[in-house]
Write a structure and sequence with these properties.
Blueprint (H helix, E strand, L loop, with lengths): L2 H8 L9 E4 L4 E4 L2 H9 L8 E5 L5 H13 L12 H4 L20 H10 L9 H8 L5 E4 L10 H4 L1 E6 L2 H14 L9 H9 L8 H10 L6 E5 H6 L1 H12 L5 H10 L2 H6 L12 H6 L18 H15 L10
Parallel strand pairs: 3-4, 3-5, 5-6
Antiparallel strand pairs: 1-2
Helix pairs in contact: 5-6, 12-13
Length: 332
């Protein structure tokens, strides 16, 4: 991106030391180090029993991560590893690009560094904390990913299972805005209205939204892809877990599924702390006042934030972009 664009961006948020790039043809907006990490992922050794949680940010990623990890490794709620931070147990293969922030000295994910030291002695952290930790993890892995299918190896679905979670874009963007404010990587100072307009214009890191979800939706009938709507998971968690049980072939009993449901309620997860508990990652004042990483975890909260004008503008944007795709969001 141009110096002019970066200067405008820096007026209200933190920037990245190596700038920001758009990856064509879809125009994915990412920190400048991203192509290097994507190149590494193209040759990453995926395993047949790997399970991916793939989402556009703030679409229920952390919730689904904990659900899948618990279903696979802790259905009886007796695994001592469950006390480890979630992002240590289930690393984010797309997170390394974020540590290029100009606030690197303030943003110190100690939990990830500690895991890196244990799993990857002698390795260079600049080659990626998460990518190298995942490579060194023994056995089955639950892997978080915010990259779209289009940027992953083309045979990913032939090698691994992918659970894709989609959330209605109005709730997602409100949650994304609060995340941008509370996480020091971004430290966003602008208004919600401005953020949403930047988002709809694909000028927010991780955008664009529509190619991300549409590519997964097109492949929803692939035997190794399971497509879930956040709102369905909120409405009937036990029913959605039964579908996941079949997809993953985990063969859990109804009681074990109930265990997982209870262990992964919003209140239960919030009580156990952030997926990475390192205080240096967060704007502490906002972390305390806005609810922190786990803010509300509800459907329909957008109604408390949208003006009538903004709602009409976003309705138009959604209608234009959904087109005849067949995607249907529940807005409540």
């Amino acid at each position: 991106m141009s110096k002019e664009w970066l200067t405008k961006m820096a007026e209200e948020q933190s920037t990245f030391r190596h700038g920001v790039v758009r990856i064509l043809p879809d125009g994915w907006l990412y920190p400048g180090t991203t192509p290097r990490f994507l190149n590494r992922i193209q040759s990453f050794k995926f395993r047949p029993d790997d399970v991916f949680v793939m989402t556009f940010p703030k679409s229920g990623t952390t919730w689904m991560q904990e659900i899948l990890w618990t279903m696979i490794f802790n259905p009886n709620l007796d695994n001592p590893q469950a006390t480890q931070p979630l992002l240590v147990r289930s690393a984010d293969i797309s997170v390394d690009m974020m540590f290029d922030t100009v606030k690197l000295d303030e943003v110190n994910p100690e939990s990830m560094y500690e895991a890196f030291k244990q799993l990857c002695p002698g390795k260079n952290e600049e080659d990626g904390l998460a990518v190298q930790c995942l490579d060194a993890m023994p056995g089955q892995r639950v892997i978080k990913c915010h990259y779209p299918l289009d940027l992953m190896p083309p045979d990913l679905l032939d090698k691994t299972k992918v659970v894709y979670v989609a959330r209605n874009p109005k709730d997602m963007v409100v949650s994304f805005y609060h995340f941008y404010k509370v996480i020091k990587v971004f430290d966003y100072k602008g208004s919600l209205d401005k953020f949403i307009k930047l988002f709809m214009d694909n000028n927010v890191v991780y955008c664009p939204y529509w190619p991300h979800i549409k590519e997964a939706w097109k492949k929803r009938n692939h035997p190794n892809l399971h497509f879930v709507f956040y709102e369905d998971l909120k409405a009937d968690p036990q029913g959605e877990l039964r579908k996941l049980n079949q997809f993953l072939a985990t063969d859990l009993t109804e009681q074990q599924l109930k265990n997982v449901v209870q262990h992964t309620t919003f209140s239960s997860m919030k009580s156990r702390g952030d997926p990475l508990p390192d205080k240096g990652l967060y704007n502490e004042e906002l972390h305390q006042t806005s609810g922190g990483f786990y803010r509300k975890g509800v459907a329909g909260d957008w109604k408390n934030h949208f003006s009538q004008e903004l709602n009409q503008e976003m309705d138009k944007w959604i209608k234009e972009n959904i087109g005849d795709s067949g995607i249907h969001f529940k807005m409540d």
